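This follows on from our talk about sequence and fold. Please put the record directly below this note.
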Amino acid sequence: MRVRVCGFVVGAVAVGLVGGGGFAGADTGGPEADLAYHGVVSLDRGRIDLRVTPRNHGPSAVADATVRLTWSVPLAARQQLPDGCARLGARVVVCRTGALAADGVGEQIGLRMRLLGAPSEVTLDIGTVWNGGLVDRNRGNDQQRVLVLDTGDAYYF
């Protein structure tokens, strides 16, 4: 079975880039965009509540992009993901950002998931995987690592 997500083909063995576009940060000398992600995450007895809002600081608009969310522990086998999101293995979920205007804020991505077991803490790595081939010279704000403790408290990033 194959699922197409933001220019990626997800298969049982590999994930590859399809068509035009490119990986985030590829310096092609073309138009530039500066993607960033902000949000909040909490962990309560193995249940994750995550809200991520993509932002494009410009100068060019982005037709679509893909953000990768990687957890330090495996996710439970069954997950209910919103449209535009897909699971890539035991610890990874990717989601479309949708179109992002230059100097604009995108639609919030909300995920409620379960981890395998109930760890006392997890780390979440957030980063752009695909940005339509635009150049992002400031990769520091689209790649983050968040430590989340099992307290039920909200951790902002």
User: Anything to note?
Assistant: Confidence is low (pLDDT under 50) at residues 1-23. The longest strand covers residues 35-44. Residues 42 and 153 are 6 Å apart (CA to CA). DSSP finds no helices and 13 strands in the chain.
